[in-house]
Amino acid sequence: MNGYDGISRRDLLKMGLFSSAFMLGGAYDELFAMTSPSGAVKIPHATHFGALKAVVSGGRFMGSEPHENDYAPTSMLYSLPEYVHSQNRIKYPCVRKSFLAGQRNTALRGCEDFVRVDWKTALDLVAKILRDVKDNYGNESIYRPSFAGWSHPGVIGRPDILQGRFFGLHGGFTDTIGDYSAGAATHILPHVMGGLEIYSYQTTYEMIAKHTKTMVLWGSDPFKTFRISYSVPDHARIEWFVNMKNAGMKFISIDPVYTETAKFMDAEWIPIKPNTDVAMIMAICFELFVSGEYDKSFLEKYTVGFDIFRNYLTGKNDGVRKNPEWAEKICGISSGTIRRLATEFRKTGTLLTSHYGCQRADNGEQFHWALITLACMLGQVGTPGGGYHFGNGGLAYSGKVMPRRMSQGRNPARTVIPASRIGEMLLNPGRTIDFNGNKITYPKISMLHNMGSNIMTQHPNTNELLEGMRGVENIITHEIVWNATAVYSDIVLPVTSTFERNDITYGDPYSNTRIWAMKQVIPPLFEAKDDYWILSELAKRLGFEKDFTEGRSQMDWIRWSYSNVETNMPFEQFWRQGFLEFKVPSKNKSFARLADFRKNPQASPLFTPSGKIEIFSEKVASFGYDDCPGHPTWIEPKEWLGAELAKKHKYHLLSIHPKHRLHSQMDNISLKEQYKVKGREPVVLHPDDARDLGIREGELVEVYNDRGAIICGAQISTTMRRYVVRVDEGAWYSPEEPCGIGARCLGGNVNVLTPSRPTSKLAQACAAHSCLVSLRKVQGKIKNNEAYKNPVVITEE
C-alpha cells in the first residue's frame, strides 16, 4: 500500500476516494479482529468491487476482508454482507396473481400481488411458455436483454453466457448487439482504426509516467470508474495516478463537472458545455492547421482523408471556418483558451485520454473520431507518452491465457437489435431501421427473459419502455432482489448471489495478472437457486439437458475452465489458496499503443480498407447517412443548451455513474444514507442556478421534461457548470402511481427523463447524455420513496 508519499490520507478520506476502513491502515486489522465473531471462518471470493475473504459465522456472511493486494478497497466491498442479506431478497419462486390464473392483463404489472409457488410449478410453467411461444410465434419472438456481465464476474455462472447457450439450443432468440457503455465508439472505430480500439490494450502506465508531460482528461473521471471493474479490480490504477501527480505531471480536465479526479490531481478545469466537445476539438484542429503547428508528415504517412477533412475544417465546403471564435459561441470556452490549448498540446508530450461518457450523446460517433483526428494532427500517435488513451486500459499485460468460458454456441435465429433500441422495438414490430450500413427489421416480441439485467433502471425513457412492455405477453426474470424489473415481471425466479455459488474469474480485464477462486461462502438463502441449475432443469423439460450441461456439474465446468490456464499449479491447490498470480514480463511494461504501426505501417497495417487511420472513411460515406458523414463533423445535438428546446427546458442533465453503487446494485442498502437527500437521489446544481430557482440545499426538487418527472433532493455545488445539473444513474424506480405510465418517480430514477433516440443511423447507440430538463421546488406533501418496499407475496394453502 505504497504511493501516498506527500499526500494527506485525511484529504483522501474527506474526498471519499477510499473507504474509511482502508484509511485506518494497520489499525484496520485490529478493528476487524475486535468486531469479527469468534470461531468465524474466512473464505476467498472475488467481486466487481475487488477480491476478498468473506468472514462467515453461523452460516451468515458477516464481513468482508479485502485482499492484501487491493490498493484502495471501497465502501461497496465492505457493504456486500448487507446486500447479500438484504430485506429485499426474493425468497421463493413467485408468479403474478392474475397471470397464474391464466390471464394476460399486462397493465397490472407493477401493482398486483404475487403468489408463492414451488420450484416444480414455476419451472413447469416457464417450460410451457417457452414451448408455446416457440410454436406460436417463432424463436425471434424471444428476446434476451441481458448482454453484459455486470451482475456476476464469474466465467461459468455469468448469466448472459448461460442464457445465450440455453436459448441457442432451444432454437434461437432475438439478441442484443453492442452495449450501453460505448455503443457509438465500438461501431465507428472499426471504420476509423480497424478494431474496437476503445476496449483494446492501451499504452502502459509505465510509459505514460515516464514520457507524458500533460494528460488531458476529456470527459473522464477515472477515480470514480476505477472503483469497479468488469472482472475484479485491485485498484492499482489509483497508485499510478498518485505517483504521476507526485512526479509533476500536468492534468487538464475538459468536463462540465469538476470531477473527483480533477480535484485530486489539481487539474486545470475547462468547464465545457455538455455535448459540444467535437466543436472544441475542431477549433483546436483548425488552430493547429492555420498556424502550421501540425504534423503534416504523420498525416501523409499514417492516415488517409485529411485533405477532405481540411476542406471541412477551413469552411471550403460549407463556408464556416471552424476557428476558436466559432467554437467559443458553441462550447462556452474562450477562443484564447482554445488557442492556448492547441499550442500546449503540440509543444509537450500530450496524452488525450477519454472514457465512454462523451459518446453517449446525439451523434456520439463523432467524438472519438474527432479525438483521434486531433491526436493525428499532433503527430504523437504510437509514441510512448502521446496520442490517445481510452477507457480503463493502462495496466501492463501478463500475456497469460485466462480461464475459458463455456461456449454460447450458435444462435439459429440470427436476429439482433442494438442495445439501446429495446423500447422502440417493443412498440414498433415490423419497423426497419438503418444500422451500420445494413438494415434491421424489428421482430414482434412475445417473451422477455431477464437474467442479470435490471432494464427498468438501465434503459433510457422508462415510460416508453413501460408502454412497450405492455405489448409483451410474458416477462420472466431471474433476480436476487425485488428491484423494479422483478416487480414488473410475470414470473420471478429467485437466484443466488455470487456468495452462494462457486465460480472462477480473473482480473484485471486488461492486465490478466490474477485468477480468482469465487468459492461459495454460505448456503443458498431461502429457496434461491443458481442460474445454471435453473436453466439445466428447464433444458431437461425441453429435451436438451445433455447438450446444455454436457454431463458436467458447475464444479466440473470450473475445473474445465481452469484447465485452460498456463500454470503448473494443480486445481486443488489453487482452489485451496483462492488465487493465482502471474508476473508481467518486463517487455510488456514498455507497450505503447500503435507503436508497431508507427514504426512500420506496411509491416503492421491497421485492419481498415487503407491499412491506415481513416480520417475520411469511404465506407462510412457510402452509407449516405445525414447524421454520420464520412469524416468527423460537428453536428448540432437535438438536445443541448443551444437548442430551441432550451427555451422551454433550460438545464442540461447529465446522468453519470454513481460513486457508491454499481449501476443499480446496492441502491437498497444503508450505504445510500451517505448520499441520498431525504431518501431521494440527489440532483446536483450550481449555486447561481439554485438561487434563480429559489431552491435551498436539501429541499425536494421535481426534475422534469416532456418524457417524465422525478423527485430528487437538492445538492448545491460549485463543481457544476451553470445550467448543467447531475443526477447519477441507477436509483431504483418508484412510480407515484404504480399501475400507470407517466407517473413521477419518487426515488429519482434518471432514465425516466433521458431520451431513447439513437446516436445516429450508424451505431443506433445510447444518447442519454443529450437531455434537457426543467427544475422546480416541490410544494406541499409528497409520498415517500417506496422503491425498497417489497411487493405482497401470497402464500397459498
From TrEMBL:
Belongs to the prokaryotic molybdopterin-containing oxidoreductase family. Residues 45-85 form the Molybdopterin oxidoreductase N-terminal domain. Its cofactor is Mo-bis(molybdopterin guanine dinucleotide). Residues 651-771 form the Molybdopterin dinucleotide-binding domain. This is Molybdopterin oxidoreductase. It comes from the Bacteria. One of its GO terms (biological process) is anaerobic respiration. Keywords: Metal-binding, Molybdenum, Oxidoreductase, Periplasm. InterPro entries: Asp_de-COase-like_dom_sf, Molybdopterin_N, MoPterin_dinucl-bd_dom, Mopterin_OxRdtase, Mopterin_OxRdtase_prok_CS, Prok_Mopterin_Oxidored. The keyword Lipid metabolism does not apply. GO terms for cellular component: outer membrane-bounded periplasmic space. One of its GO terms (molecular function) is molybdenum ion binding. Residues 89-541 form the Molybdopterin oxidoreductase domain. PROSITE patterns: MOLYBDOPTERIN_PROK_3 (PS00932).
